[in-house]
Amino acid sequence: MAKSGLGQDPQSTAAATVLKRAVELDSESRYPQALVCYQEGIDLLLQVLKGTKDNTKRCNLREKISKYMDRAENIKEHLEQEKEEAKETPRISLRFCCESKHLRS
């Protein structure tokens, strides 16, 4: 996915750089950072798409955008699931632990 095949204009280059970083972060399981990079890269690709008149290039850009959006959505769902699981995990109060220690003494 990181290979862009995009043109050499500044927005295409920036999009390719940001999306390459997103894929790197994703492969390192650094999902919050990867999500931010995917979102920024997608925004840049959308700007490139707006300025592209060639229908073949537009189709290719739409396909790339769709793939990156799918991955970003999967990461977002994963992060939300982790957040929910963290809420459901019971936590032992530090105060309770300290009080029970004193009761045993």
TrEMBL record:
<keyword id="KW-0813">Transport</keyword>
<dbReference type="InterPro" id="IPR051866">
    <property type="entry name" value="Intracell_Sig-Traffick_Protein"/>
</dbReference>
<dbReference type="InterPro" id="IPR007330">
    <property type="entry name" value="MIT_dom"/>
</dbReference>
<keyword id="KW-0967">Endosome</keyword>
<dbReference type="GO" id="GO:0031902">
    <property type="term" value="C:late endosome membrane"/>
</dbReference>
<keyword id="KW-0175">Coiled coil</keyword>
<keyword id="KW-0472">Membrane</keyword>
<dbReference type="GO" id="GO:0051301">
    <property type="term" value="P:cell division"/>
</dbReference>
<dbReference type="InterPro" id="IPR045331">
    <property type="entry name" value="MITD1_N"/>
</dbReference>
<dbReference type="Pfam" id="PF04212">
    <property type="entry name" value="MIT"/>
</dbReference>
<keyword id="KW-0132">Cell division</keyword>
<feature type="coiled-coil region">
    <location>
        <begin position="62"/>
        <end position="89"/>
    </location>
</feature>
<keyword id="KW-0131">Cell cycle</keyword>
<dbReference type="InterPro" id="IPR036181">
    <property type="entry name" value="MIT_dom_sf"/>
</dbReference>
<comment type="subunit">
    <text>Homodimer. Interacts (via MIT domain) with CHMP1A, CHMP1B, CHMP2A and IST1.</text>
</comment>
<feature type="domain" description="MIT">
    <location>
        <begin position="8"/>
        <end position="86"/>
    </location>
</feature>
<dbReference type="GO" id="GO:0030496">
    <property type="term" value="C:midbody"/>
</dbReference>
<protein>
    <recommendedName>
        <fullName>MIT domain-containing protein 1</fullName>
    </recommendedName>
</protein>
